[in-house]
Amino acid sequence: MQLPDLNLLPALDALLREGSVARAAERMNISASAMSRTLTRLRRVTGDELLAPAGRGLVLTERARQLQPAVERALADALSALRPVPPKDLASIEAVLTLRSSPDVHMLFLPPLERRLRVEAPRVQLRLLPEGDDDPTVLRHDDIDLDLGHYGALPADIRSKRLGVERMVALLHRDHPLAAGPMTLEAFAAAEQLTVSRRGRLQDVLDRALQEQGLARTVRATTSTSWAAALTVLNGGALAILPSRVAAHYAEVLPVVYRPIPLELPTVEFAMAWHRRNDDVPVHGWLRAAVVTIVDDLLSP
Fold first, then answer.
1. pTM
2. Which of 63, 83, 183, 282 has its CA 20 to 30 A from that of 199?
3. CB contact at 8 A, 276 and 159
4. How many domains does the chain have?
5. Which residues form the HTH lysR-type domain (predicted)?
6. pLDDT tens per residue, range 25-67
């Protein structure tokens, strides 16, 4: 049996990603005519058109869409197999590690992570990127090494580890009328509030829970960062709804306090995810272990 030409795999990956012969050629740094000839060969090998005319452009066929995850995995595994075995002495490793997470995670994680880095892996650089579209399949590419967030079902090639759960609390100026003691549900609902939402949502699960109790709250503003909410709390009027560990951090550096919300709300579970090609890479293992330690420290009483 004649084996397929594995040299076609990178070209197939480029065509499936770009959905265009010209863009795939640019991605592969070859001419459009050469990529067109490669597409002809791929069609012959796969027995499918792969890219079908649609208006003035091309679209992936159903078979092409089915092939895409397998092609991405195969190419990633091949590239991983061809990499040299890295040294196991972390102090001698030169690498750039990219971690994607929310700004709050950057704020809480970077100081202790940088301290460990300086001592244990001084030649490694960190690159922290803001959270994206909640699509962990970007880990199949080399752009992101570790993703911290909330996940549902994951593909087989994406690993994950549950890190813990968070509860939401109310952050208030220490002189706010509700800061003195436990809040009643009615007093909480009547207070002006600030919310944090990456997508700018003014309502969330808290509003639905209040509606079930026949109550509603006044959201004065929403912001994409907890820091902006915490600084606004300093005005003394509104309270902000934040994860408890984030609120605890602000209570250490600002004249604010945090109080439990007098309402049963679902906890927020968070995890880290990475691609399986990095399972046995020492510096990646170090990063994941460091994240687990930092989370344990943050969640400890």
1. 0.66
2. 183
3. yes
4. 3
5. 4-61
6. 888 888 989 899 999 998 988 889 988 888 777 888 899 888 8
